[in-house]
Amino acid sequence: MEGKRGNGDNSGSEDTSRTGSADTSREKDREADLLESDLTRRGFLEGTGAALVVAGVPTLGTAEISPATVVAQEPAAVPQTTIRVTVNGNRERVEVEDRWTLNELLRDHFGLTGSKIGCNRGECGACTVLLDGEPVYSCSTLAVWADGREIVTVEGLEDDGDVSPLQQAFMDHNAPQCGFCTPGQLMTATALLERNPRPTTAEVREAMVGNLCRCSNYNAIVEAVLAAAGSPGGAA
Question: Using CA atoms, how far apart are residues 42 and 44, in angstroms rounded to an integer?
Fold first, then answer.
């Protein structure tokens, strides 16, 4: 009886061992399948991501430009005109670009820097010069328009190094403040006194209305003009 029982115990142990071995084998197969599946998905995702990155990067430096396709663009030539002008009594012949203003011609090419650039749009009068005796804004007057005409700047008011009576009156009555607008004021007042040697206060104010003084020294400017005319405080 004991022998049978022993044989029966051995048989059960052998069956259990065989079953455990089969289970272990199946578990390994599943792990291998999972590992293979994981690698496949990972490889797919990595490959797809790399492909997307490559597709999104522009191809730089791959195109070659043929020298025949390069078109050289040269700046268009600016039209130029030769003009003859008389500047402060001196006759000049000069070639100007058609786009130059009279102020550019006077300052940049003749070195007459007395005429100032204030607003650069024909409002303040700091750039005023005389063109055939009439005050004009040189910042908004083209140089080609002055062809054959006479120009007088503030430098031309002096006579053999002596200032004009109007310039002296400006100094005597403290008309200049910062002095920036003074050249334009002088040129407008000069034109006024040449056509009206004895203006009234109202006439001076009316004539000078196109010249702005940022220092607001208008009363002194009017007094200086009247003094130069020999009628200080002239009747309105």
Answer: 5
